[in-house]
Amino acid sequence: MCRNITTLRGLEPPATSEEIEAAARQFIRKVSGVNAPSTRTDQALEKAVQAVARATSELLDVLPARRQPPPSLPPLRRLRSPAAR
C-alpha cells in the first residue's frame, strides 16, 4: 500500500467524505502513475477516484469498530490539528 495513504477506519470522529476522497485520489495517482492529469486522462481518473471513494465509504460503513485508533491521523486532520500549528 502507498505509504501516503493512512488508515481511515477507527477515526473519531469518523472519516469525512473529503478524507475518503483524498485517500482515493492518492491511490489512483499511485496505481495509474499519473500525478498531474491532462485533458486526455482527467475524465478517466476522476471516474476512478469517485468509484474508489464510493467503495471505501461502503467498506468503512460495514467494518466492525476498531479496538484502537489508527496509528496516525490522515493528512487533512494533521493540517487542522492544534499540535501541527
Low-confidence stretches: none
Outline: globular
Range of strand content: under 5%
Assign the structural class, choosing from mainly alpha, mainly beta, alpha/beta, alpha+beta, or little secondary structure: mainly alpha
* End-to-end gap: 29 Å
Biggest pleated-sheet summary: none
Helix content: 40-55%
Number of strand elements:
0
The rounded Rg comes to 14 Å
* Number of H- or I-type helical stretches: 3
The pLDDT mean sits at 87
What sequence of helices (H) and strands (E) makes up the elements? HHH
Can you give a write-up of this model?
The chain is mainly alpha-helical. It has a domain at 16-59. The chain has helices at 17-32, 42-62, 75-80.
